[in-house]
């Protein structure tokens, strides 16, 4: 796809919008988790708990911001002590910085530095990565006895209202 400045169009704006909606869905999930699930130990004692998963998403966002040369680097989140409100604030900040990076990359026609093949693939990667961990959060909440409500489960798919 040619994304030179003269060809930046609605589909490119749609990529930015899709990433923004996706980011708000991650925050929606965290806002609607039972607080008791936040640090619950995964079944079998192996793997990340929900707090660590949220911190991991934030860390990966920061890693890509740093790799791309962005000056908007996030404050690290401690996977052991992070609270939901801190994770939400951190994810809002990194998501806004990534959204700006995506828009700038699309408008300039340059790919995101250190990511191949192109900006659309970068957006796909971020959405796939974060959604994988969102699924882990929802599954883990259910496994430790704090399943998401039916309303929240359906709300994760309501892209038109997020």
TrEMBL record:
Transmembrane segments: none annotated. A divalent metal cation binds at residues 56, 129, 133. Keywords: Metal-binding. GO terms for molecular function: metal ion binding. Pfam families: DinB. The keyword Zinc does not apply. InterPro entries: DinB (IPR007837), DinB/YfiT-like (IPR034660). The keyword Metal-binding applies. Belongs to the DinB family. This is DinB family protein. It comes from Acidisarcina polymorpha. The lineage of its organism: Bacteria, Pseudomonadati, Acidobacteriota, Terriglobia, Terriglobales.
């Amino acid at each position: 796809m040619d994304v030179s400045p003269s060809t930046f169009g609605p589909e490119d704006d749609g990529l930015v919008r899709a990433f923004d909606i996706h980011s708000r869905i991650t925050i929606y999930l965290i806002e609607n988790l039972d607080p008791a699930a936040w640090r619950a130990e995964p079944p079998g004692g192996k793997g990340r708990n929900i707090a660590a998963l949220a911190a991991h998403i934030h860390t990966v966002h920061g890693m890509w911001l740093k790799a791309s040369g962005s000056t908007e680097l996030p404050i690290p989140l401690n996977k052991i002590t992070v609270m939901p409100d801190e994770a939400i604030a951190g994810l809002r900040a990194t998501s806004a910085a990534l959204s700006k990076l995506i828009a700038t990359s699309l408008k300039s026609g340059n790919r995101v530095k250190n990511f191949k093949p192109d900006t659309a693939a970068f957006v796909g990667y971020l959405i796939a990565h974060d959604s994988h961990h969102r699924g882990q959060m929802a599954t883990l909440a259910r496994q430790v006895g704090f399943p998401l409500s039916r309303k929240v489960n359906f709300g994760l798919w309501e892209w038109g209202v997020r």
